[in-house]
Amino acid sequence: MRMYQRNGIIEEVNYCVPLSAITMTTLDSQADKSLCHLDKVPSTELAEVPFDCGLHGGITTLESQVSGHSIDEKRHTIGMLRRQDGRVLKPVVKPLLGKREIAFYESLQASEDPVMLQLKNYVPRYYGTTELPIFGRPVTFLTLKDITDGMAEPCVMDIKIGRRTWDPLATPQKKATEELKYAESKRTYGFCITGFQVYCLSSGQLKKFGKHYGKTLDAKGVVEALKMFLNISPERPPCRHLIVQLLSFLWKILLFFRIQRLFRFYSSSLLVAYDANRLRHYIRLSNTRTDSSSSLVDRSRSPTNNHAAVSNVPKDVNDATSNSGTAEVNRNRTTERIHFVKRSISLSSECDLPGKGKTLNRRGSCSPDFRVDRPCRTNSHVNNVDGDVKRMKEDYDALLNELTSFSEEKQSWVRINMIDFTHVFPADDRNTLDLNYLEGIENLIKLVERFLVSKDNAA
Questions:
Q1: What pLDDT, on a 0 to 100 scale, did the predictor assign at position 358?
Q2: Alpha-carbon torsion 313, 319, 324, 325, what sign?
Q3: Where does 318-451 show beta strands of DSSP type E?
Q4: Phi and psi (nearest 5°) for 337?
Q5: Of 87, 299, 304, 319, which has the most beta carbons under 10 Å away?
Protein backbone atom coordinates (compact mmCIF):
# COMPACT_ATOMS: atom_id res chain seq x y z
CA MET A 1 0.00 0.00 0.00
CA ARG A 2 1.54 3.30 -1.14
CA MET A 3 0.38 6.42 0.69
CA TYR A 4 0.97 10.09 -0.09
CA GLN A 5 -0.21 13.35 1.33
CA ARG A 6 -1.28 15.89 -1.26
CA ASN A 7 -2.99 19.16 -0.43
CA GLY A 8 -3.76 17.85 3.01
CA ILE A 9 -5.49 14.73 1.67
CA ILE A 10 -4.03 11.27 2.31
CA GLU A 11 -4.21 8.97 -0.68
CA GLU A 12 -3.82 5.21 -0.30
CA VAL A 13 -2.67 2.59 -2.79
CA ASN A 14 -2.88 -1.02 -1.60
CA TYR A 15 0.21 -3.23 -1.75
CA CYS A 16 -1.41 -6.18 -3.46
CA VAL A 17 -4.50 -7.23 -1.53
CA PRO A 18 -7.76 -5.26 -1.22
CA LEU A 19 -8.76 -4.53 2.35
CA SER A 20 -12.42 -3.73 1.82
CA ALA A 21 -13.44 -6.95 3.53
CA ILE A 22 -11.45 -6.24 6.68
CA THR A 23 -13.46 -4.74 9.54
CA MET A 24 -11.35 -2.54 11.75
CA THR A 25 -12.39 -2.04 15.36
CA THR A 26 -9.83 -0.75 17.81
CA LEU A 27 -9.19 0.62 21.24
CA ASP A 28 -9.03 4.33 21.84
CA SER A 29 -5.71 5.79 20.76
CA GLN A 30 -3.51 6.29 23.79
CA ALA A 31 0.13 6.92 24.54
CA ASP A 32 2.28 3.99 25.63
CA LYS A 33 2.47 3.14 29.31
CA SER A 34 6.00 2.61 30.56
CA LEU A 35 7.46 -0.32 32.39
CA CYS A 36 9.70 1.98 34.41
CA HIS A 37 8.69 0.38 37.70
CA LEU A 38 10.30 -2.84 36.49
CA ASP A 39 13.62 -1.08 36.02
CA LYS A 40 13.83 -0.23 39.72
CA VAL A 41 13.73 -3.79 40.99
CA PRO A 42 16.34 -6.52 40.48
CA SER A 43 13.81 -9.00 39.14
CA THR A 44 10.11 -9.35 38.50
CA GLU A 45 7.56 -11.88 37.42
CA LEU A 46 4.55 -10.77 35.42
CA ALA A 47 1.45 -11.45 37.47
CA GLU A 48 -1.97 -12.59 36.30
CA VAL A 49 -4.27 -9.92 34.92
CA PRO A 50 -5.58 -8.19 38.09
CA PHE A 51 -8.92 -7.25 36.57
CA ASP A 52 -11.59 -8.61 34.28
CA CYS A 53 -10.76 -7.44 30.78
CA GLY A 54 -12.74 -10.22 29.12
CA LEU A 55 -9.96 -12.79 28.55
CA HIS A 56 -11.25 -16.32 28.22
CA GLY A 57 -10.72 -19.59 26.39
CA GLY A 58 -7.13 -20.09 27.54
CA ILE A 59 -6.03 -16.63 26.36
CA THR A 60 -3.57 -14.86 28.67
CA THR A 61 -1.33 -11.84 28.59
CA LEU A 62 1.96 -12.37 26.74
CA GLU A 63 4.48 -12.54 29.57
CA SER A 64 7.45 -12.12 27.25
CA GLN A 65 6.24 -8.76 25.88
CA VAL A 66 9.02 -6.21 26.37
CA SER A 67 7.80 -3.12 24.48
CA GLY A 68 4.68 -1.48 23.12
CA HIS A 69 1.30 -1.07 24.76
CA SER A 70 0.52 -2.85 28.00
CA ILE A 71 -2.77 -3.65 29.72
CA ASP A 72 -4.24 -0.67 31.55
CA GLU A 73 -7.76 -0.86 32.95
CA LYS A 74 -8.22 2.86 33.56
CA ARG A 75 -7.14 3.87 30.08
CA HIS A 76 -8.67 0.75 28.51
CA THR A 77 -5.51 -0.19 26.62
CA ILE A 78 -4.57 -3.76 25.85
CA GLY A 79 -1.20 -5.38 25.18
CA MET A 80 -0.12 -8.54 23.44
CA LEU A 81 -2.03 -11.71 24.27
CA ARG A 82 -1.13 -15.37 23.92
CA ARG A 83 -3.13 -18.45 23.07
CA GLN A 84 -2.38 -21.94 24.33
CA ASP A 85 -1.44 -23.12 20.82
CA GLY A 86 1.68 -20.94 20.72
CA ARG A 87 0.18 -18.02 18.80
CA VAL A 88 0.20 -14.40 19.91
CA LEU A 89 -2.47 -11.77 19.35
CA LYS A 90 -1.29 -8.27 18.49
CA PRO A 91 -4.05 -5.67 19.01
CA VAL A 92 -4.82 -3.07 16.38
CA VAL A 93 -4.47 0.15 18.37
CA LYS A 94 -4.89 2.72 15.59
CA PRO A 95 -7.10 2.04 12.53
CA LEU A 96 -4.78 3.50 9.89
CA LEU A 97 -1.61 1.85 11.23
CA GLY A 98 -3.38 -1.45 11.79
CA LYS A 99 -4.80 -1.43 8.28
CA ARG A 100 -1.33 -0.79 6.90
CA GLU A 101 0.27 -3.66 8.84
CA ILE A 102 -2.49 -6.11 7.94
CA ALA A 103 -2.08 -5.16 4.27
CA PHE A 104 1.65 -5.82 4.54
CA TYR A 105 1.17 -9.31 5.99
CA GLU A 106 -1.60 -10.14 3.50
CA SER A 107 0.50 -9.05 0.54
CA LEU A 108 3.41 -11.07 1.88
CA GLN A 109 1.20 -14.15 2.06
CA ALA A 110 -0.09 -13.76 -1.49
CA SER A 111 3.07 -12.63 -3.28
CA GLU A 112 5.22 -14.86 -5.48
CA ASP A 113 7.95 -12.24 -5.85
CA PRO A 114 11.36 -13.79 -4.96
CA VAL A 115 12.21 -10.91 -2.65
CA MET A 116 8.90 -11.21 -0.80
CA LEU A 117 9.32 -14.98 -0.53
CA GLN A 118 12.72 -14.45 1.05
CA LEU A 119 11.31 -11.88 3.45
CA LYS A 120 8.78 -14.44 4.73
CA ASN A 121 11.69 -16.37 6.28
CA TYR A 122 12.40 -13.49 8.66
CA VAL A 123 8.94 -12.43 9.83
CA PRO A 124 6.56 -14.20 12.24
CA ARG A 125 4.18 -16.68 10.67
CA TYR A 126 0.90 -14.92 9.99
CA TYR A 127 -2.48 -16.58 10.64
CA GLY A 128 -4.83 -13.76 9.67
CA THR A 129 -6.91 -11.59 12.00
CA THR A 130 -9.39 -12.30 14.75
CA GLU A 131 -11.79 -10.33 16.93
CA LEU A 132 -12.18 -10.54 20.70
CA PRO A 133 -14.42 -8.62 23.10
CA ILE A 134 -12.10 -6.62 25.39
CA PHE A 135 -13.47 -4.21 27.99
CA GLY A 136 -16.90 -4.74 26.50
CA ARG A 137 -15.96 -3.79 22.94
CA PRO A 138 -14.69 -5.81 19.93
CA VAL A 139 -10.97 -5.54 19.25
CA THR A 140 -9.18 -6.69 16.10
CA PHE A 141 -5.97 -8.70 16.56
CA LEU A 142 -3.30 -9.94 14.19
CA THR A 143 -2.58 -13.61 14.90
CA LEU A 144 1.13 -14.41 14.74
CA LYS A 145 3.52 -17.17 15.77
CA ASP A 146 5.07 -16.68 19.21
CA ILE A 147 8.85 -16.43 18.84
CA THR A 148 9.32 -17.83 22.36
CA ASP A 149 7.10 -20.87 21.88
CA GLY A 150 8.71 -23.91 23.53
CA MET A 151 11.36 -21.91 25.43
CA ALA A 152 11.66 -22.65 29.15
CA GLU A 153 13.33 -19.34 30.10
CA PRO A 154 12.84 -16.94 27.17
CA CYS A 155 15.21 -13.96 27.04
CA VAL A 156 13.75 -11.38 24.66
CA MET A 157 15.03 -8.02 23.34
CA ASP A 158 13.27 -5.53 21.06
CA ILE A 159 15.76 -3.59 18.89
CA LYS A 160 14.30 -0.82 16.73
CA ILE A 161 16.39 -0.50 13.57
CA GLY A 162 17.11 2.80 11.83
CA ARG A 163 18.33 6.26 12.73
CA ARG A 164 15.12 7.68 11.25
CA THR A 165 11.97 6.29 12.87
CA TRP A 166 9.35 8.62 11.35
CA ASP A 167 7.67 7.76 8.05
CA PRO A 168 6.92 9.97 5.01
CA LEU A 169 3.48 10.94 6.38
CA ALA A 170 4.76 12.19 9.72
CA THR A 171 3.88 15.74 10.73
CA PRO A 172 6.64 18.18 11.74
CA GLN A 173 5.64 17.68 15.37
CA LYS A 174 5.85 13.90 15.01
CA LYS A 175 9.28 14.19 13.38
CA ALA A 176 10.57 16.35 16.23
CA THR A 177 9.21 13.94 18.84
CA GLU A 178 10.78 10.93 17.16
CA GLU A 179 14.14 12.66 16.82
CA LEU A 180 14.28 13.12 20.60
CA LYS A 181 13.51 9.47 21.41
CA TYR A 182 16.58 7.28 22.00
CA ALA A 183 18.61 10.12 20.45
CA GLU A 184 22.07 9.07 21.71
CA SER A 185 21.71 5.45 20.70
CA LYS A 186 20.27 6.21 17.25
CA ARG A 187 22.88 8.87 16.55
CA THR A 188 25.75 6.53 17.44
CA TYR A 189 24.56 3.17 16.11
CA GLY A 190 21.47 3.74 13.97
CA PHE A 191 19.34 1.54 16.27
CA CYS A 192 17.91 1.63 19.78
CA ILE A 193 16.90 -0.88 22.45
CA THR A 194 13.26 -0.34 23.40
CA GLY A 195 13.05 -3.06 26.05
CA PHE A 196 14.23 -6.52 27.06
CA GLN A 197 13.89 -9.29 29.59
CA VAL A 198 16.59 -11.74 30.66
CA TYR A 199 16.83 -14.75 32.99
CA CYS A 200 19.91 -14.71 35.21
CA LEU A 201 21.83 -17.94 34.67
CA SER A 202 23.00 -18.30 38.26
CA SER A 203 19.69 -17.60 40.03
CA GLY A 204 17.08 -18.17 37.35
CA GLN A 205 15.49 -14.83 38.22
CA LEU A 206 13.69 -12.85 35.54
CA LYS A 207 14.65 -9.20 35.03
CA LYS A 208 12.74 -6.77 32.85
CA PHE A 209 13.84 -3.42 31.44
CA GLY A 210 11.31 -1.16 29.77
CA LYS A 211 11.44 1.67 27.29
CA HIS A 212 12.44 4.29 29.87
CA TYR A 213 15.57 2.29 30.58
CA GLY A 214 16.32 2.16 26.86
CA LYS A 215 15.90 5.92 26.50
CA THR A 216 18.67 6.50 29.06
CA LEU A 217 21.27 4.45 27.18
CA ASP A 218 24.25 6.21 25.67
CA ALA A 219 26.78 4.53 23.38
CA LYS A 220 28.48 2.67 26.26
CA GLY A 221 25.14 1.86 27.87
CA VAL A 222 23.95 0.06 24.73
CA VAL A 223 26.95 -2.27 24.89
CA GLU A 224 26.35 -2.91 28.59
CA ALA A 225 22.68 -3.66 27.91
CA LEU A 226 23.66 -6.19 25.24
CA LYS A 227 26.08 -7.82 27.67
CA MET A 228 23.39 -8.04 30.31
CA PHE A 229 20.94 -9.54 27.82
CA LEU A 230 23.48 -12.12 26.64
CA ASN A 231 24.37 -13.06 30.23
CA ILE A 232 27.94 -11.79 29.87
CA SER A 233 29.81 -10.72 32.98
CA PRO A 234 33.44 -10.51 34.18
CA GLU A 235 33.01 -13.98 35.66
CA ARG A 236 31.16 -15.36 32.62
CA PRO A 237 32.62 -14.70 29.14
CA PRO A 238 30.37 -14.73 26.06
CA CYS A 239 29.05 -18.10 24.96
CA ARG A 240 30.42 -18.55 21.46
CA HIS A 241 27.59 -20.89 20.49
CA LEU A 242 24.98 -18.26 21.33
CA ILE A 243 26.87 -15.44 19.58
CA VAL A 244 27.37 -17.49 16.41
CA GLN A 245 23.69 -18.42 16.32
CA LEU A 246 22.66 -14.77 16.64
CA LEU A 247 25.10 -13.67 13.96
CA SER A 248 23.88 -16.34 11.56
CA PHE A 249 20.39 -14.78 11.69
CA LEU A 250 21.65 -11.19 11.54
CA TRP A 251 23.92 -11.88 8.57
CA LYS A 252 21.02 -13.38 6.61
CA ILE A 253 18.81 -10.37 7.27
CA LEU A 254 21.71 -8.07 6.35
CA LEU A 255 22.15 -9.86 3.02
CA PHE A 256 18.42 -9.48 2.38
CA PHE A 257 18.62 -5.71 2.85
CA ARG A 258 21.58 -5.54 0.52
CA ILE A 259 19.35 -6.74 -2.31
CA GLN A 260 15.79 -5.63 -1.48
CA ARG A 261 14.67 -2.38 -3.08
CA LEU A 262 10.90 -2.75 -2.75
CA PHE A 263 10.30 -1.18 0.66
CA ARG A 264 11.49 1.33 3.22
CA PHE A 265 11.22 0.06 6.79
CA TYR A 266 10.67 2.85 9.30
CA SER A 267 10.35 2.16 13.05
CA SER A 268 10.56 -1.60 12.44
CA SER A 269 12.21 -3.86 15.01
CA LEU A 270 14.20 -7.03 15.35
CA LEU A 271 12.84 -9.28 18.08
CA VAL A 272 15.73 -11.34 19.45
CA ALA A 273 15.04 -14.36 21.64
CA TYR A 274 16.98 -17.26 23.15
CA ASP A 275 16.36 -19.85 25.87
CA ALA A 276 18.47 -19.24 28.99
CA ASN A 277 17.87 -22.84 30.03
CA ARG A 278 19.64 -24.08 26.90
CA LEU A 279 22.38 -21.45 27.26
CA ARG A 280 23.07 -22.74 30.77
CA HIS A 281 23.53 -26.24 29.31
CA TYR A 282 25.93 -25.09 26.59
CA ILE A 283 28.05 -23.15 29.08
CA ARG A 284 28.34 -26.17 31.38
CA LEU A 285 29.17 -28.37 28.40
CA SER A 286 31.87 -25.91 27.32
CA ASN A 287 33.30 -25.81 30.84
CA THR A 288 33.38 -29.62 30.95
CA ARG A 289 35.34 -29.75 27.71
CA THR A 290 37.73 -27.08 28.97
CA ASP A 291 38.33 -29.04 32.18
CA SER A 292 38.97 -32.22 30.19
CA SER A 293 41.46 -30.43 27.95
CA SER A 294 43.22 -28.95 30.98
CA SER A 295 43.52 -32.40 32.55
CA LEU A 296 45.09 -33.73 29.36
CA VAL A 297 47.60 -30.86 29.33
CA ASP A 298 48.50 -31.49 32.97
CA ARG A 299 49.10 -35.16 32.27
CA SER A 300 51.30 -34.32 29.27
CA ARG A 301 53.45 -32.10 31.49
CA SER A 302 54.01 -34.75 34.16
CA PRO A 303 57.53 -36.22 34.63
CA THR A 304 56.59 -39.46 32.92
CA ASN A 305 55.23 -37.71 29.87
CA ASN A 306 57.43 -34.62 29.48
CA HIS A 307 59.23 -33.64 26.29
CA ALA A 308 62.60 -34.88 27.48
CA ALA A 309 61.23 -38.37 28.09
CA VAL A 310 59.89 -38.72 24.57
CA SER A 311 62.37 -36.65 22.58
CA ASN A 312 64.28 -39.73 21.41
CA VAL A 313 61.20 -41.75 20.52
CA PRO A 314 60.72 -42.34 16.77
CA LYS A 315 58.16 -40.10 15.01
CA ASP A 316 55.71 -42.90 14.26
CA VAL A 317 55.65 -43.82 17.94
CA ASN A 318 54.98 -40.20 18.90
CA ASP A 319 52.10 -40.08 16.43
CA ALA A 320 50.67 -43.25 17.90
CA THR A 321 50.99 -41.77 21.38
CA SER A 322 49.19 -38.61 20.24
CA ASN A 323 46.37 -40.62 18.70
CA SER A 324 46.15 -42.70 21.84
CA GLY A 325 45.86 -39.55 23.94
CA THR A 326 43.04 -38.26 21.76
CA ALA A 327 41.26 -41.58 21.98
CA GLU A 328 41.67 -41.50 25.75
CA VAL A 329 40.05 -38.09 25.95
CA ASN A 330 37.13 -39.29 23.82
CA ARG A 331 36.73 -42.37 25.99
CA ASN A 332 36.81 -40.24 29.12
CA ARG A 333 34.12 -37.93 27.73
CA THR A 334 31.95 -40.88 26.80
CA THR A 335 32.45 -42.46 30.22
CA GLU A 336 31.64 -39.18 31.98
CA ARG A 337 28.49 -38.73 29.92
CA ILE A 338 27.30 -42.30 30.62
CA HIS A 339 28.09 -41.87 34.32
CA PHE A 340 26.27 -38.55 34.30
CA VAL A 341 23.13 -40.07 32.75
CA LYS A 342 23.17 -42.96 35.22
CA ARG A 343 23.51 -40.59 38.19
CA SER A 344 20.71 -38.41 36.80
CA ILE A 345 18.41 -41.43 36.59
CA SER A 346 19.42 -42.63 40.03
CA LEU A 347 19.03 -39.30 41.76
CA SER A 348 15.69 -38.68 40.07
CA SER A 349 14.26 -41.61 42.04
CA GLU A 350 14.27 -39.46 45.18
CA CYS A 351 10.97 -37.93 44.10
CA ASP A 352 9.37 -41.35 43.40
CA LEU A 353 6.89 -43.17 45.57
CA PRO A 354 8.42 -45.54 48.14
CA GLY A 355 9.32 -48.86 46.66
CA LYS A 356 8.72 -47.75 43.09
CA GLY A 357 11.94 -47.78 41.08
CA LYS A 358 11.56 -45.63 37.96
CA THR A 359 13.42 -44.03 35.09
CA LEU A 360 13.04 -40.65 33.41
CA ASN A 361 11.74 -40.27 29.90
CA ARG A 362 12.35 -37.19 27.73
CA ARG A 363 9.63 -35.11 29.43
CA GLY A 364 10.87 -35.92 32.90
CA SER A 365 8.01 -38.33 33.68
CA CYS A 366 8.73 -41.81 34.99
CA SER A 367 8.33 -45.35 33.77
CA PRO A 368 7.99 -48.30 36.20
CA ASP A 369 10.19 -50.53 34.06
CA PHE A 370 13.44 -49.60 35.75
CA ARG A 371 14.47 -50.04 39.40
CA VAL A 372 17.38 -48.45 41.21
CA ASP A 373 18.39 -48.11 44.83
CA ARG A 374 17.93 -44.76 46.54
CA PRO A 375 21.11 -42.67 46.72
CA CYS A 376 22.99 -42.55 49.99
CA ARG A 377 24.10 -38.90 49.72
CA THR A 378 22.66 -36.43 52.19
CA ASN A 379 22.55 -32.65 52.30
CA SER A 380 25.34 -30.95 54.23
CA HIS A 381 27.65 -27.98 54.03
CA VAL A 382 29.71 -30.09 51.60
CA ASN A 383 26.99 -31.85 49.61
CA ASN A 384 24.15 -29.92 47.97
CA VAL A 385 22.08 -32.88 46.81
CA ASP A 386 19.02 -30.85 45.85
CA GLY A 387 21.11 -28.50 43.73
CA ASP A 388 22.92 -31.41 42.09
CA VAL A 389 19.65 -33.17 41.30
CA LYS A 390 18.17 -30.05 39.75
CA ARG A 391 21.28 -29.38 37.68
CA MET A 392 21.59 -32.99 36.53
CA LYS A 393 17.95 -33.17 35.50
CA GLU A 394 18.40 -30.02 33.45
CA ASP A 395 21.49 -31.46 31.78
CA TYR A 396 19.79 -34.79 31.22
CA ASP A 397 16.80 -33.18 29.49
CA ALA A 398 19.14 -31.05 27.38
CA LEU A 399 21.23 -34.11 26.49
CA LEU A 400 18.19 -36.07 25.36
CA ASN A 401 17.04 -33.10 23.31
CA GLU A 402 20.46 -32.90 21.64
CA LEU A 403 20.43 -36.61 20.81
CA THR A 404 16.87 -36.75 19.46
CA SER A 405 16.42 -33.40 17.69
CA PHE A 406 17.00 -32.64 14.04
CA SER A 407 19.69 -30.07 13.29
CA GLU A 408 17.10 -27.35 12.57
CA GLU A 409 15.42 -28.00 15.91
CA LYS A 410 18.73 -27.82 17.74
CA GLN A 411 19.20 -24.28 16.50
CA SER A 412 15.68 -23.20 17.41
CA TRP A 413 16.65 -22.15 20.93
CA VAL A 414 17.96 -18.92 19.34
CA ARG A 415 15.56 -16.97 17.11
CA ILE A 416 15.25 -13.55 15.48
CA ASN A 417 12.16 -12.12 13.80
CA MET A 418 11.56 -8.87 11.98
CA ILE A 419 8.43 -7.27 13.50
CA ASP A 420 6.36 -4.06 13.50
CA PHE A 421 5.36 -3.14 9.96
CA THR A 422 2.97 -0.27 10.60
CA HIS A 423 5.45 2.18 9.06
CA VAL A 424 6.60 0.20 6.01
CA PHE A 425 6.25 2.04 2.70
CA PRO A 426 6.91 1.09 -0.92
CA ALA A 427 10.18 2.62 -2.12
CA ASP A 428 9.85 5.71 -4.32
CA ASP A 429 13.14 4.84 -6.00
CA ARG A 430 13.64 1.13 -6.58
CA ASN A 431 17.19 1.68 -7.76
CA THR A 432 18.37 2.43 -4.21
CA LEU A 433 18.68 0.41 -1.03
CA ASP A 434 17.11 1.07 2.37
CA LEU A 435 20.23 2.77 3.75
CA ASN A 436 18.46 3.75 6.96
CA TYR A 437 17.85 0.10 7.90
CA LEU A 438 21.23 -1.03 6.59
CA GLU A 439 23.12 1.36 8.85
CA GLY A 440 21.38 0.06 11.95
CA ILE A 441 21.75 -3.64 11.30
CA GLU A 442 25.37 -3.29 10.17
CA ASN A 443 26.29 -1.53 13.43
CA LEU A 444 24.36 -4.08 15.48
CA ILE A 445 26.31 -6.89 13.82
CA LYS A 446 29.61 -5.12 14.54
CA LEU A 447 28.76 -4.88 18.24
CA VAL A 448 27.76 -8.55 18.46
CA GLU A 449 30.90 -9.58 16.57
CA ARG A 450 33.00 -7.88 19.23
CA PHE A 451 31.76 -10.45 21.73
CA LEU A 452 32.80 -13.24 19.39
CA VAL A 453 36.40 -12.03 19.06
CA SER A 454 36.76 -10.80 22.63
CA LYS A 455 40.18 -11.66 24.06
CA ASP A 456 38.68 -12.94 27.29
CA ASN A 457 36.10 -15.06 25.46
CA ALA A 458 36.67 -18.58 26.73
CA ALA A 459 33.19 -20.06 26.46
A1: 42
A2: positive
A3: 359-360, 366-367, 414-419, 424-426
A4: -65, -40
A5: 87
